[in-house]
Design a protein that fits this description.
This protein is an alpha/beta fold and 114 residues long. It is built from 3 helices and 5 strands.
Length: 114
């Protein structure tokens, strides 16, 4: 069973036919979160820095993020960021924008394939 960490889920991460369980994730469970494979990329730098400092985490940005293909028992922990403006023109969020955002952690687990 593999566990990943990122800022969003994509339909392509899951099997074509799957039963998926979504539940809140307690960020105090640092061991599980930090053991997860990071799928963050360089455009997430400001957000990762805020998450690391705000929640006392040690999330890394891999040089080449892995492609996620979840199977039964695999999970992805997602840090949902709320309160950020919609990005346009390929710019990145400023530190001030990220600092003012709120964060909600969720865990998505593939429990069965149909």
């Amino acid at each position: 069973m593999a566990t990943y960490f990122g800022f969003a889920v994509a339909d392509s991460m899951f099997p074509l036919y799957a039963v998926i369980k979504k539940q809140p994730f307690n960020v105090e469970n640092k061991a599980e979160l930090e053991a997860a494979v990071s799928v963050c990329n360089g455009s997430h730098t400001a957000t990762v820095e805020v998450a690391n400092s705000r929640f006392k985490l040690d999330i890394k940005i891999p040089i080449k993020p892995p492609i996620v293909s979840l199977g039964i028992g695999d999970s992805i922990i997602v840090m949902g960021v709320r309160g950020l403006p919609r990005l346009e023109d390929r710019r990145h969020y400023t530190k001030e924008e990220v600092d003012s955002a709120t964060f909600v952690f969720s865990k998505y687990t593939v429990v069965d394939e149909l």
